[in-house]
Write a structure and sequence with these properties.
The chain has helices at residues 152-163, 182-185, 190-202, 215-232, 267-280, 342-354, 401-414; strands at 35-42, 47-53, 62-65, 68-71, 73-74, 81-86, 94-100, 111-114, 126-132, 169-173, 241-244, 310-315, 319-324, 359-364, 382-383, 389-390, 422-425, 431-439, 442-443, 449-454, 480-489, 492-499, 503-511, 527-532. The protein has 535 residues and is an alpha+beta fold. It has 2 domains: 1-115, Immunoglobulins (Immunoglobulin-like), CATH 2.60.40; 126-532, Alkaline phosphatase D (PhoD) (Purple Acid Phosphatase, chain A, domain 2, 4-Layer Sandwich), CATH 3.60.21. The strands form 6 sheets. A 6-stranded mixed beta sheet has the order 11-10-9-22-23-24, covered by helices on one side. Strands 17, 18, 19, 20 and 21 form a 5-stranded mixed beta sheet that branches. It is globular, with a radius of gyration of 22 Å.
């Protein structure tokens, strides 16, 4: 069947009428054909789509968007993975998209995708679905059947419940992949033997050769397909999705010992992380207020202007969100160290004090407000013998500059005159919410910093801090005075944020086995609260 520039609203695909997503629970009405997964990102005038096909394509596929045809760019060496970049679009406009073969044969049903409002457009509302820690292979089990990660079907059920609220965008804050290498393979014991078994089945990447274009590429796909392509399928096709990275996305845990320090990442870890993003999920689109010179931006092997780790969400004059990976470009040089480079800190602070939008949120990959006593955190606290946090013993290889950068960021957030400071956290496998009243010698009570942990999508069993080898849940660091209105809760789920000019409303949705799976479809928020704009 030949598809010309103008398409009817619905049509039958030639060949077998496949279900939209073979791994899905409900997503059956949209025909995805040969598509394995599809994840878009958008701003007011651009979109970027990452997609893969179960059967590789020998010729470039084409994206039809409105009356335009855009050639796909192959991302891998075999033709399974493709990306589509489109600019010059109109703001706040719903487009009809269509994937076609090179000869203009339909590869899928059409679907809608809407661009964001222009930065200066007056907007009254925006809804966000946000979560963290969605990754993990469901086949990793202890001998007694204990799971490290929720089954994919359970994660999909949670995701579909979140998408049922029809969010304008999704933020997936870090840890899309769990496949630590040196930090896991060097360990022993029952907790890691289950991982070792699956590693032996899937294979171990050779750290001395490139990731793409070698046998490593096949192994990488076997690692990542179950954690991203199988999880998301085509569910996100009409929802711009911002996927921020963290330590596990570098294929290591954030650890430091005399034998090995995992950050800054090795060349192999960096290559593996970049290859995963290049194939599976979109980089951040250019933004006029974010310097194109920041680390991880405008790489020669990427579409011009994209940023891999530092992102901006601008939704009209209503909202600006600043997304920053605190692991990839970490430095360790004592008091001068930072979790983000100096230029990134300057960007964060400049955007915070500008107060151009009604609302602002910081979205770091490492939480601000709570700690699990791990090495790669803002805080010097370490677990004491009584399983509390403290600083009586120095945290090995932890540089004081991380804390000092934390203090500068909190100072800028609290200094806002019109807006209530807000941080949306990733990484920790829990829900939590509170206000930071004091941080070290900073008195923030004049404009407390609101901080929220949004809930993990995929964690299970030993992945929750209180059931891991630490045997302690997330706690408030010793130098913070935090007014907790929701103490850390170790359950799976997500958060819905409704943004308006005068307030932000939060609804936290939590579930965890052995609760019945069917309860997800009608689950109510376990906590609802508002953050009002300063008058």
């Amino acid at each position: 069947m030949q598809i010309m520039a103008s398409l009817p609203p619905a049509f039958a695909l030639s060949g077998k009428n496949l279900a939209a997503d073979e791994t899905g629970v409900k997503n059956r009405s949209w025909n995805a054909g040969n598509i394995s997964h599809l994840i878009p990102i958008a701003n007011h005038d651009q979109i970027l789509i990452k997609t893969s096909f179960r059967i590789p394509l020998n010729e470039n596929p084409v994206l039809q968007i409105g009356d335009r045809l855009v050639n796909g760019i192959r991302s891998d060496t075999r033709g399974h993975f493709w990306e589509f970049y489109v600019n010059g679009l109109n703001g706040n406009t719903e487009y009809t998209l269509q994937l076609l073969s090179n000869s203009k044969v339909a590869l899928s049903d059409p679907w809608p995708l809407k661009t964001f409002p222009k930065p200066d457009e007056k907007i009254e509302k925006c809804r966000i679905l946000v979560y963290t820690c969605a990754g993990g292979n469901e086949d990793i089990l202890l001998e007694d059947g204990t799971r490290f990660f929720l089954p994919i079907a359970s994660r999909q059920r949670l995701l579909e419940r979140g998408l049922a609220f029809q969010p304008d965008l999704v933020i997936a804050n870090g840890d899309h992949i769990y496949w630590d290498q040196i930090t896991l393979l060097s360990k022993s014991g029952p907790l890691v033997e289950a991982w070792h078994d699956l590693y032996r089945k899937i294979g171990t990447m050779d750290r001395n050769i490139p990731v793409l274009g070698t046998d490593n590429e096949k192994i990488l796909k076997r690692i990542v397909d179950p954690q991203i392509a199988h999880l998301y399928g085509t569910r996100l096709r009409s929802t711009p999705t911002y996927m921020l990275t963290d330590d596990h996305d570098l294929f290591e845990n954030d650890e430091a010992s005399d034998e090995f320090i995992s950050l800054p990442p090795s060349q192999h870890s960096l290559e593996a992380a970049r290859a995963t993003q290049h194939l599976y999920y979109p980089e951040f689109l250019p933004d006029a207020t974010r310097p194109g010179s920041l680390s991880g931006s405008s790489a020669s092997d990427r579409i011009s202007g994209l940023s891999e780790v530092f992102g901006t969400i601008r939704y009209g004059n209503l909202l600006e969100a600043l997304l920053y990976d605190t692991k990839r470009y970490v430095s360790l040089n004592g008091a001068k160290a930072g979790m983000v480079p100096d230029a990134v800190e300057k960007w964060l602070i400049n955007r915070t004090v500008s107060e151009e939008t009604s609302q602002l949120m910081h979205v770091p990959s490492t939480p601000i407000g709570w700690s699990a006593g791990k090495w790669g955190e803002w805080y010097p606290d370490i677990l004491q013998k009584d399983r509390t946090l403290g600083t009586n013993k120095a945290k090995p290889y932890w540089p004081s500059g991380w804390w000092q950068q934390h203090q500068r960021i909190l100072t800028a957030l609290s200094a806002q005159k019109k807006r209530s400071p807000l941080i949306i956290n990733g990484d920790l496998h829990n829900f939590a919410a509170g206000k930071i009243m004091k941080s070290g010698d900073l008195d923030l009570r004049h404009n407390p910093v609101n901080t929220v942990c949004v809930g993990p999508l995929g964690s299970a069993g030993p992945l929750f801090p209180s059931t891991s080898f630490r045997a302690t849940g997330a706690l408030v660091p010793s130098a913070l005075e935090l007014d907790e209105h929701l103490k850390p809760l170790e359950k799976n789920g997500f958060t819905i944020i409704d943004v308006s000019p005068d307030k932000m409303k939060f609804q936290l949705f939590a579930w965890r086995p052995p609760e019945e799976l069917d309860l997800i479809d009608t689950m109510k928020p376990i906590s609802t609260f508002e953050v009002s704009r300063n008058s």
